[in-house]
Amino acid sequence: MSTDEVYGSIDSSSFTELSSLCPGNPYASSKAAADLLCCAYFQTYHLPVIITRCTNNFGPYQFPEKLVTLAITNALEDKSIPIYGKGLNIRDWIYIDDHCQALELLIQKGRLGETYNIAADQKKTNLELIYSILDIMDKPRELITFVADRPGHDRRYALDTTKITREMNWQPDYSLDKALTATVDWYMNNESWWQQAKSGKFAQYYKRMYLDR
Question: How far apart (Å, rounded) are the C-alpha atoms in residues 161 and 12?
Answer without folding.
Answer: 15
